[in-house]
Amino acid sequence: MYTIGDKIVYPMHGAGIIEKIEEKEILGEHREYYVLNVPCGDMKIMIPVDTSDEIGVRYIISAEEIQTILSVLADVSSEMPHNWNRRYRENMEKLKTGNAVEVAEVVRNLTRTDRKKKLSTGEKKMLTNARQILLSEMVLAGGMDTAKADVLIDEAV
CarD-like/TRCF RNAP-interacting domain: from which residue to which, for each copy (predicted)? Predict the structure, then answer.
């Protein structure tokens, strides 16, 4: 179980700090929830405590692991299907894992694809989301502001 003040990642939404743990009744069911404050986008998310492991909630990466993320961003692009629909599905699976390296791969591949030929609306939205997830984790892990993390991502890709 996580505690107040822990920095965690909620797959598909990004990293944040647990602000409080509260009990709520939703749809007639009493459950405990982590209230996660996500710094990028100024969002608050409620995560059920009892299903957080199944959802894929994890602690954020360490400051040292940011270098690994930057290396992944700078690395050669992965081979991706030419069919946008299949590519979208593969990238969505990577994002659902919540793994920082896989999220970085999605950001790298979609950014480079967008530079060569414009992405579909769905892939553009996915890139924005993936970048936001990566950004939020780098901000918390590296103790940096959003603008600096943004520049690091751009320079690495």
Answer: 1-111
Residues 72, 146 share a domain = yes
Residue in this structure with the two tokens 């692991």, named with its chain if needed: 65
CA distance 62 to 118: 34
Both 77 and 111 in one domain: the answer is: yes
Dihedral angle over CA of 94, 98, 101, 106, nearest 10 = 40
In whole angstroms, what is the distance from residue 92 CA to residue 122 CA? 11
Whether 73 and 141 map to the same domain: the answer is yes
Domain that holds residue 82: 65-156
Alpha helices in the chain (DSSP H): 52-55, 65-74, 84-97, 100-116, 121-142, 146-156
Round to whole Å and give the CA distance between 15 and 39.
8
Instruction: Supply 81's token pair.
Output: 């299907």
> What is each CA distance from 47 to 13, 67, 108, 154, in whole angstroms?
11, 29, 28, 31
Across all residues in the chain, what is the average pLDDT? Answer: 94
The string of pLDDT tens digits covering residues 41-73 is 778 999 999 999 999 999 999 999 999 999 999
**Residue 75 and residue 37 in one domain:** no
